[in-house]
């Protein structure tokens, strides 16, 4: 058998080979075959054993084995030999040889650490359960004691901190609740907590901020929680807070002193004929004092000056909702209906004013103007128009009253005169339906 030889540098070895006639010798030790042929080549290239072939004493052992054909007890007790056997058999036979006392202590310490961490987590969950039970019974301080113990046992779990924050919320210590929510969020993000846990902490923080009146911050926190978890309840809370915020802004905007300043500026612009700018000032007045009739009335006049009649009607209707006997609003509304040739509606407005103030000269003049516009007689030449008009019950009643029709004809022929509002209203109704024609 060729011996294993080392180069002068000790970095290279020759692979020993069995002599041709010895491979089947029954007197050879069977373990010697582990250090021959392909097995030896595997050992010389394996990461765990290849370094042994650079060690002079190990190579000398192998050469001695090849000479004696027997494995000595001394060689078998060498841990390197056992490592080689383990590599070839696919098992770990190295024992503790690769570990220093320090390494062994470190492994034992890691194992103990993992066990301790596991038991701490279990104990923390038990404390949380006890805390939840106390929380359900509204024993906030007792619950906090259990949550504190859970936090000490497992500082990486944000749930315990968030639960403690809930206790402070329940006893009204909202600022402390916010601080704990922030701490829980910090721990949760650091340990990549579940989105639902992050969302719960953010929503709880939002509720506490709302209690402190910090509405903008509360809305932001609740909206952030929706990025972590889709919660319909939180969506409704955000909507309600935004409405509350708008109401607060509107309430803060109301200011009688500032409203009067805007009113003085508007009156000055009105006097200069700058109605559009005056309207802007009146709008500010109306925002600061929404139910002040004077500002609405002044703005309506501006709209009338600009011939924006529908906008004026909207303001006048708002005034009459507040005060249905407002004389000037009724007169202005009657004027607009006259412009639209809605004579029946105009007469109703004038009649209402005359019932309140029979001597109102402006109302009397407007009333006479409408009466002069009603110098018409019945036109029944259009059968289709007549059929459509008869669908209106009030028109049907007028046309079915022969005495009324006869009287109206006498009025048109100047044989009779009347200021009766009911008769004039009948004229207006027929004209609006297109059933009247001018008297020749």
From TrEMBL:
One of its GO terms (molecular function) is Hsp90 protein binding. Keywords: Repeat, TPR repeat. The keyword Nucleus does not apply. TPR repeats lie at residues 124-157, 327-360. Residues 1-34 are annotated as: Disordered. Residues 40-90 form the STI1/HOP DP domain. Residues 1-12, 19-28 have a biased composition (Polar residues). InterPro entries: STI1/HOP_DP (IPR041243), TPR-like_helical_dom_sf (IPR011990), TPR_rpt (IPR019734). PANTHER family: STRESS-INDUCED-PHOSPHOPROTEIN 1 (PTHR22904:SF523), TPR REPEAT CONTAINING PROTEIN (PTHR22904). This is STI1/HOP DP domain-containing protein.
């Amino acid at each position: 058998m060729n011996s294993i030889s080392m180069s002068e540098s000790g970095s290279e070895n020759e692979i020993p080979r069995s002599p041709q006639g010895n491979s089947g010798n029954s007197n050879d030790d069977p373990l010697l075959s582990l250090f021959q042929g392909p097995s030896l080549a595997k050992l010389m290239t394996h990461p765990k054993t290849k370094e042994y072939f650079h060690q002079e004493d190990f190579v000398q052992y192998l050469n001695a084995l090849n000479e004696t054909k027997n494995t000595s007890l001394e060689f078998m007790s060498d841990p390197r030999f056992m490592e080689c056997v383990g590599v070839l058999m696919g098992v770990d036979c190295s024992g503790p040889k690769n570990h220093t006392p320090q390494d062994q202590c470190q492994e034992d310490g890691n194992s103990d650490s993992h066990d301790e961490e596991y038991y701490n987590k279990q104990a923390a969950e038990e404390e949380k359960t006890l805390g939840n039970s106390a929380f359900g019974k509204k024993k906030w301080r007792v619950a906090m004691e259990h949550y504190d113990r859970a936090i000490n046992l497992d500082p990486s779990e944000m749930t315990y901190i968030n639960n403690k924050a809930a206790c402070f919320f329940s006893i009204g210590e909202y600022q402390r609740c916010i601080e704990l929510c922030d701490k829980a969020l910090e721990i949760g993000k650091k340990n990549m907590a579940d989105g639902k846990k992050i969302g719960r902490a953010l929503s709880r923080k939002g509720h506490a901020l709302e209690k402190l009146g910090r509405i903008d911050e509360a809305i932001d926190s609740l909206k952030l929680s929706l990025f972590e978890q889709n919660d319909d309840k939180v969506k409704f809370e955000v909507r309600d807070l935004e409405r509350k915020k708008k109401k607060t802004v509107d309430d803060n905007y109301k200011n009688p002193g500032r409203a009067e300043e805007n009113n003085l500026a508007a009156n000055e612009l009105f006097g200069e004929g700058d109605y559009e700018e005056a309207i802007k000032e009146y709008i500010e007045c109306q925002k600061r004092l929404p139910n002040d009739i004077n500002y609405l009335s002044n703005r309506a006049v501006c709209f009338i000056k600009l011939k924006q009649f529908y906008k004026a009607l909207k303001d006048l209707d708002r005034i009459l909702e507040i005060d249905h006997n407002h004389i000037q609003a009724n007169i202005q509304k009657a004027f607009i209906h006259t412009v639209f040739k809605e004579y029946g509606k105009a007469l109703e407005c004038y009649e209402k004013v005359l019932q309140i103030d029979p001597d109102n000269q402006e109302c009397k003049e407007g009333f006479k103007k409408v009466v002069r516009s009603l110098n018409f007689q019945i036109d029944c030449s259009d059968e289709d128009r007549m059929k459509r008009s008869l669908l209106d019950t009030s028109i049907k009643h007028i046309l079915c009253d022969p005495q009324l029709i006869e009287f109206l004809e006498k009025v048109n022929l100047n044989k009779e005169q009347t200021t009766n509002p009911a008769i004039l209203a009948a004229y207006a109704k027929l004209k609006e339906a297109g059933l009247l024609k001018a008297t020749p």
